[in-house]
């Protein structure tokens, strides 16, 4: 399937001051109640500096700042003073570092310093995902059929954020994220979600077909141990 064109109509302005104050007060009271705060910042004016300030209270803060045709160059991860986990794609990483050609590992090191974050994932579409936790891990793509890439990065972020927060090794996190991404690109638009049963089946089939996968620098079993399963999955 090839996307020919898209039409977006947006009211492109900052969040109104009154609404911003309401959101600010709500987040100040609610954020301390949670173990994990996931911020999907699409860069359309809702999340301003005051709202970003409230995220500093999070016990564990996971952030994705999306770059799209409506916000290119204006919605960078560097507007966040800190994060515990950052998930970006390669163009978003390069924009944040103002570096079009540099080695991606060097840019990740720069981001880690600027955002005070030591857990970073950078996705590359059909190329290996780079995971960082002080060391680098290359995680191969697992998709064998592509229908629609819409939402694949969001799916990767959604599953990997709680994995990182629970302390899973970053190479294992990248494997799980790429497994979910492989399932998501087979779903047209957002017609359905990636369900746990489909993920377990996919990982089991990988194990049966490959007898284990080499991820990063470690040989891992393609079926996650019971202790690594997320609550409710």
Automatic annotation (TrEMBL):
Q: Which GO terms describe its cellular component?
A: cytosol
Entry keyword Kinase: yes
- Asked whether the UniProt record includes Manganese among its keywords, one would answer no
Instruction: Write one Pfam family the protein is assigned to.
Output: PfkB
The chain positions of domain Carbohydrate kinase PfkB read 80-186
Per its record, what are the GO molecular function terms?
heptose 7-phosphate kinase activity; heptose-1-phosphate adenylyltransferase activity
**What SUPFAM superfamilies has UniProt attached to this entry?**
Ribokinase-like
Q: What does the UniProt keyword field contain?
A: Kinase, Transferase
User: What's the protein name?
Assistant: Putative carbohydrate kinase
Q: Which organism is it from?
A: viral metagenome
